[in-house]
Amino acid sequence: MKQTEAVTQFLAGRRMVIARFVAHRHKEIQNKAKKPVGVVNLYEVQCADGKAPTVQMWCPRNIQTLDQATKESPCQFKEGQKLVVEFDLMEPNTFDAKNGVIIRAGSVLPLE
């Protein structure tokens, strides 16, 4: 996504942030019965103001295990690359997020 397009989307009312990619990992999500329901991508990012939230985005529904996620949905970003994150919710979270804030993303795209 181009920066001008990201700014236009932000000004139109979309929740967006530009951040620098730091690290990636997958996590298996289970329901209360301990049955796997899917896998999420967890991206560690660094914002311009110094904050470092964790961005969570679901893998495609057909990916149900961590092994399958590493093979079929590898991380496509390089360390230091700038990303545009469109999100629905930003909330405190000390369980999944290393720095205490998690962003539930709708999309994560490289900034061109």
Characterization of the model:
There is one protein chain. This protein has one domain: OB fold (Dihydrolipoamide Acetyltransferase, E2P) (Beta Barrel), CATH 2.40.50. The chain contains 2 helices and 5 strands, in the order αβββαββ. The chain has helices spanning 3-11, 66-72; strands at 16-30, 36-47, 54-58, 82-92, 101-110. A hairpin with a 5-residue loop joins β1 (16-30) and β2. The mean pLDDT is 88.
Strand content: over 45%
Largest sheet: 5 strands, mixed, barrel
Question: Ranges with pLDDT <50 over ≥5 residues?
Answer: none
Mean pLDDT: 88
Give the class from helix and strand content and strand pairing.
mainly beta
CATH superfamily: Nucleic acid-binding proteins
Rg of Cα set: 14 Å
What is the name of the CATH architecture?
Beta Barrel
Topology:
Blueprint: H1 3-11, E1 16-30, E2 36-47, E3 54-58, H2 66-72, E4 82-92, E5 101-110
Parallel strand pairs: 3-5
Antiparallel strand pairs: 1-2, 1-4, 2-3, 4-5
